[in-house]
């Protein structure tokens, strides 16, 4: 085993606060491949009515394992970050069984790594979810433009690509491009009233993330307070990408459930998220749009930000299967 594979096997979890906290373990590693396991835990319950695991917990494992496979594909220690992640949920998972994940970095270019993964419980031939991800590899940084002191403008690393700007515009409540950046005098402030998204103990995964909501009959604002256990990169520092994804999935489920008003139960079909910038160690916000509710399937878009909705950290979309209540 090469030095970098040995290094990853011994330190990949230990240097990541969130992976240490949730108890993930590296079970195998070889060139361009990695395997991890997420222990069973009552906190992963997301659907007590049906006894199902929250998809966010599986997403955290898949994102982590994909990152492990990228590290195992590199010839030297290089920083990298998730560009996008797609999850397809194939069958139900339960929180009382551990979840295994196998990932393969099948293509590595100078700038981007492409990864596939499968998550399963018990039988590897019967995966509960599959993942597809792309990671951006670090490249020599050019000079950054000067930013006036005290400006709210994003840093060079936070500027939009054309595709990202279009995605954000599509998710704005009005369907129009986001408003220009605010000055320091009228910086965006979240609504002061908020409450737990569900009463304590009803959905353990919501309690684990500490998710709150500023209620609104049409556009509730979901909030995830910062907690050190959510850190994925202690050097920036930054939130774990899987946590950001799990929060987005949770917001989409909660918003859709409010829209359905109990008529049907949503169950995840797929989920995809584009990362626009790193999540800072501070409170994160999410707002959703139910794009369509059909007889059997619903589509929800999500936008996540921290300091201002004008500069989202991620945008996401999810399909849900709608099942009648028994």
TrEMBL record:
Q: Map out region (Disordered) in residue numbers.
A: 174-199
Highest taxon listed in the record's lineage: Bacteria
Looking at the record, the residues that make up the Thioesterase domain are: 51-124, 239-309
Q: Which Pfam families does the record match to this protein?
A: 4HBT
| N-terminal signal peptide | none
GO cellular component terms? cytosol
Q: Where is the composition biased (Low complexity)?
A: 174-183
Q: Which UniProt keywords apply?
A: Hydrolase
Which terms in the Gene Ontology molecular function aspect does this entry carry? Answer: 1,4-dihydroxy-2-naphthoyl-CoA thioesterase activity
What is the protein name given in its UniProt record?
Answer: Uncharacterized protein (TIGR00369 family)
Q: What is the lineage of its organism?
A: Bacteria, Pseudomonadati, Pseudomonadota, Betaproteobacteria, Burkholderiales
């Amino acid at each position: 085993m090469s030095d970098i594979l040995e290094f990853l096997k011994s330190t990949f979890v230990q240097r990541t606060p969130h992976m240490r906290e949730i108890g993930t373990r590296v079970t195998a590693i070889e060139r361009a491949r990695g395997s991890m396991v997420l222990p069973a835990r009552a906190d992963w319950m997301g659907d007590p009515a049906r006894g199902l695991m929250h998809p966010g917990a599986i997403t955290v494992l898949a994102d982590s394992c994909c990152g492990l496979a990228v590290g195992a594909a590199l010839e030297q220690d290089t920083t990298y970050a998730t560009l996008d992640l797609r999850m397809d949920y194939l069958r139900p998972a339960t929180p009382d069984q551990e979840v295994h994940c196998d990932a393969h970095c099948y293509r590595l270019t100078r700038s981007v790594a492409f990864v596939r993964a499968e998550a399963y419980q018990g039988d590897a031939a019967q995966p509960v979810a599959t993942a597809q991800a792309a990671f951006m590899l670090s490249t020599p940084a050019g000079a950054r433009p000067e930013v006036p002191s005290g400006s709210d403008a994003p840093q060079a690393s936070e500027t939009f690509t054309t595709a990202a700007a279009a995605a954000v515009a599509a998710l704005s409540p009005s369907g129009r491009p986001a408003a220009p950046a605010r000055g320091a005098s009228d910086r965006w402030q979240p609504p002061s009233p908020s409450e737990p998204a569900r009463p304590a103990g009803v959905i353990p995964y919501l309690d684990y993330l500490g998710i709150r909501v500023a209620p609104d009959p049409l556009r509730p604002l979901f909030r995830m307070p910062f907690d050190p256990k959510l850190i994925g990169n202690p050097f920036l520092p930054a939130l774990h990408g899987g946590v950001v994804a799990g929060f987005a999935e949770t917001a989409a489920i909660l918003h859709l459930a409010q829209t359905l008003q109990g008529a049907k139960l949503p169950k995840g079909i797929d989920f995809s998220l584009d990362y626009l910038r790193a999540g800072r160690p501070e409170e994160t916000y999410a707002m959703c749009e139910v794009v369509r509710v059909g007889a059997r399937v619903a589509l929800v878009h999500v936008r996540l930000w921290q300091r201002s909705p004008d500069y989202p950290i991620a945008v996401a979309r999810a399909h849900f299967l709608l099942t009648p209540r028994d």
